[in-house]
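Hi V.,

You were right to ask for the full record rather than a summary. Here it is.
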Amino acid sequence: MGQRKSKIEAKPVNPKLFQRLSTRNLLFDNPAAEEKYSDYDFPFENLVFEGGGTRGLAYVGAVRVLEEAGVMRKIKRFAGASAGAMMAAMLALGFNSQEIEDFLQVDLSKEMLDHSCGYCSLLPNILKGYGWNPGNGLMAWFGNMLQEHTGNPDLTFSHMYKMFGVELCIVVTNVNQMAEEYCHVKTTPDMPIRLAIRMSMSLPGIFQAVEHRHKDYSYQDYYIDGGLLVNYPIHCFDGWWLSMDNKDAFLNRLFPLDRLAQLFEKTERFGTHNPKSLGMVLFSTFDVEFMHTELSKRLGDRKPVRPKTKLSKQRTKKQHEMNEAARNHEVVHKAVNNFLTVLAENNTNKDDKIELRELELVFKKMDQAGARFTQEDASVLFGENVDPIEVFAGLDKDDSGFITHQELVAFLEERGFNFFTQFLGYKRRPIESLGGFLETIIEAVMIYIKRVYIGEKDVHRTIGIDTDYLPGTDWKMEQDDKKFLISQGERAAKAYLREWVKVHKLTKTTEPDLNDITEEAETQSSTESTIAQRNRRSASSQSGSTSFVSVASSD
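Predicted structure:
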């Protein structure tokens, strides 16, 4: 104690220290404020990224929070699909959030959208390679990055595992096999990482499919976007399929052969829940995300402040139109619900046919105090001053003397109420172009498949990042749009860690030292961390061929 006191007295008082301490006190008084998450010990060792299109910068913000909390230094396994595969690969290579942010500031559309001759090449390229853009630019860009930092543009999963001691899983879709595949040091040790990324980012129609010949050269398969079948592979480190333990080696697991088909079932390969896995997903105001409600609860009611960008203004106008339509729909929804409830109560025969006398009872009860189906509801559905006889005649299209279920449903759909969409709980997606048509088809498949792979327990190991007005198809974002994505990622990660600390009743592992919160200490720690990561990659790059030959020869 005496020694610590003398150190503090000998050091000049930093006037910003008291300002920071006062701020901390205010933060702890505020239940929505942040504390120092590096004081806690989180259990995560696996990090998984959903495919998110052009919104990868949102992941940068979330990763930055995990770095500050000390979580990233414990991560041993990374996984991703589609655009999430690139984020997973860069983190596995040792890049920190700032370096990835710098990489993603580049206009990747110039690298990825590499078709020539504009729309004139669309049909020929699709007929020849099953996609518009060849994708060679993406392969070259990522290969150059690997060359610069590892000495080899075709670094394989095996090389990464031996050089960096981490596992990387990239999910791809094998079109010929009609199934997803998990590229990993255990399953595809000799596959170049950039090839797997190229496969996983091959959005059908936009990018040409990747034709890959297998080792025995007897056949070749076509590969496309891994996100088509498994866009959020949070399960990939569950179970034994990608486990590197000797007991889980394929030689020990894939027998007897007569049970091989059963052994390849998801529940067999990924059946054991891994509590050390943490994932991230992205969703916007315009996306369909069935975990949206639960994930949004962590963020509270505070709406993010949108920047004054072109995209923000366009989407704000569109959202106002959607909100107005939603309000109108809610009025109709309420009226329909009240009408059907009272109609069911007065359906004396308990069949699927409504007689005139039963409909008259519904309208008669409108005048009673506390009536559920009101004059206002009737006006919404049937107009002002409605008469039950006229309503019955309008609904009884075939003049059968009663209203059938089909006639009732048809009428309600005319009023804007669709039973099918209400059952699904999804928003209707308008289609106005060929691109929108293809995009909606792909999203429909992804949503359906996602329900197969994602369970309720996965919500609790998922950081949900609300990208608000930015869906995953914006190639022309302004700088403020990109900053907004980063801030939303930070906000989501902090909300998740805050909830984790509360739910799991974590206690601080160490008593924070007063000097730890000074700007000097924080700056030095951040600098040393960045230098250490760069030195590690620099050493690999400088040893270049030597390290690589030794790794290759050991194969």
